[in-house]
Design goal:
Elements (H helix, E strand, L loop, with lengths): L4 E5 L4 H12 L3 E6 L2 H14 L4 E5 L7 H11 L4 E6 L14 H29 L2 E6 L15 H19 L4 E6 L3 E3 L2 H4 L3 H5 L6 E3 H13 L4 E2 L3 H10 L4 H11 L8
Parallel strand pairs: 1-2, 1-4, 2-3, 4-5, 5-6, 6-9, 7-8
Helix pairs in contact: 1-2, 1-8, 3-4, 4-5
Length: 266
Amino acid sequence: MNNSYALITGASSGIGLEIAKNFAEKGYNLILTARRRDLLEEVAKNISSKNDVNVDIISKDLSLKESTQEIFEFCEAKDYSVDILVNNAGYGIKTAFDKTSVEEEEKFIRVLGTSVIMLTKLFIPKMIENGGGKIMIVSSVAAFAAPSAIQPLYGPIKTFMNRFSDSINVNYKHKGITSTALCPGFTITGFHTASGVQDEMDRVPRFLVFSAKRIADEAVDATLSGKSLCVPTFTYKTLVFTLKYLPRWVINALGKLLAPGRYDKQ
């Protein structure tokens, strides 16, 4: 059994769950965290029954400021060496920006942004001490796309996370630590239903929608290889490459064509 531990946030479903399965198949022990303990227990039982690895869980809500410290202390108390940190937890807010409370926005920023920074900050000293580590930050193709009329903060935060991931590589790659920004496109998960945008998801052309397993498989390979950026599938690699060179009006037109509902006036 590999003695390395992978800590995965948002591991109870979707991409996080598939990432957990992939690491377990590769022999990594797991520490899984999400809000719902019942789902985590079910996932841990399923993964343990199929792989010779240790799977531990800790139920935490990353919208709460103290959760990151509590996750770190949980790992410290059990003497778990976290060699791989996967910052995957996330969700979306459909409500218009002017109608969302300050408290809701703060929680959103904490889950998608602040918790990522804090967990990385807490675990990176031990990675340095151990001679290296791998970090995955689940971002999105939205980081490269035009601003959306729904979930107005989602794309900007993902752009910030990409830059944060780059900064980790600049500052710690020489210490054996690499960070991979994973930027998937439309993926079949419970994310869109939970975020209230399933109708928009259903209108996306099928050739742009991929399974969570497909995304996770590429993500894990890229992370273990130390790649700084992972845009899964040839379809989205081509799209992101194209977005870098197109004028803004063309990007906006493409957004309305390929992601209907996301660029309509609210």
